[in-house]
Write a structure and sequence with these properties.
By secondary structure, the protein is of the alpha/beta class. The protein has 9 helices and 10 strands. It has a domain of about 120 residues: Rossmann fold (3-Layer(aba) Sandwich). The structure holds adenosine-5'-triphosphate and magnesium ion.
């Protein structure tokens, strides 16, 4: 359903962030994107929701050409794609539930946003999303009173409340300790399996990538140098992706 055909991306300064990328990702896949810093992982996932425009080639999601979308149809398209960041991107001085409810703002009349008057159905959906990631009991807690792992779960719940078909996660566990990182990866896996949401994660920890993802895409210098099942990733393949440098593992930072 996500299809790259000979896609290249040149940044305004002339740097080629992606070079002739072709790949297809089916609905419901769990994909880890790995590679050295600067390889093009963020560039790759950010083209999918059009945070970045592509320069050449064709990128389609469910048959729709991403770069042809404009205005209302672009906003609607983006609603179907959740985005999770390393830094959580939450409003920390307010409650968990209010953060999750903000996922509805694009569809709400402005007066409701001003009054914070969310319809009952949105509140129910927000509470359901919090329940799915196991932090329903924190709904009325202020975000700055939560741990990093709990904050990442709030971010995940906010994304779930928008009912996405795809979740793009840019290093979602980079700021977390190894145990919490695994809990968050488990949340991603459960959501992927139970809700058939496609999950694409950029991740520096190779051991987590191999443990949780079904498929691994290795990026180097803006090109795909490996694309296949995580089970088939060998040390030679990691050498190809990391060019002889040591990849990160969770053990490495314990
Ligand atoms: N706005 C930009 N303008 C110019 N070059 C950019 C821009 N954004 C990224 N790049 C370059 O494109 C390349 C790929 O960057 P990208 O952020 O996709 O790497 P990454 O694999 O996500 O790295 P990291 O693991 O450090 O997050 C890098 O060399 C980077 O310097
Ligand atoms: Mg990045």
């Amino acid at each position: 359903m996500i299809k790259f055909e000979n896609v290249s991306k040149v940044y305004p300064n002339g740097y080629k962030g992606l070079n002739n990328v072709s790949l297809e990702i089916e609905q419901g896949e769990f994909v880890a994107i790995i590679g050295l810093s600067g390889a093009g992982k963020s560039t790759l996932i950010r083209t999918i929701n059009r945070m970045h425009d592509i320069s050449e080639g064709k990128l389609t999601v469910d048959g729709v050409s991403v770069n042809s979308l404009k205005g209302k149809s672009l906003r609607k398209f983006r609603r179907g794609i959740g985005m999770i960041f390393q830094s959580f991107n939450l409003v920390t001085r307010t409650t968990v539930i209010k953060n999750v409810l903000t996922s509805n703002i694009p569809d709400m009349p402005f007066w409701r946003v001003l009054l914070g008057a969310y319809p009952e159905s949105n509140k129910v959906a927000a509470l359901e999303a919090l329940d799915k990631v196991g932090i329903l009991d924190k709904a009325y807690t202020r975000v700055d009173q939560l741990s990093g792992g709990q904050q990442q779960r709030v971010a995940l719940a906010r994304t779930l409340a928008q009912n996405p078909k795809i979740i793009l996660a840019d290093e979602p566990v980079a700021a977390l300790d190894p145990v919490t990182a695994k809990q968050v990866m488990n949340d991603f896996r459960r959501i992927n399996r139970e809700m058939n949401i496609s999950v694409l994660i950029n991740i520096h920890h190779v051991d987590l990538a191999l443990e949780y993802a079904d498929r691994v895409i290795g990026v180097k210098g803006g090109e795909i140098v490996y694309d296949g099942p995580s089970k088939e990733v060998t040390s030679e393949i990691l050498d190809r992706i990391y060019g002889g440098q040591e990849p990160d593992t969770m053990e490495g930072i314990q």
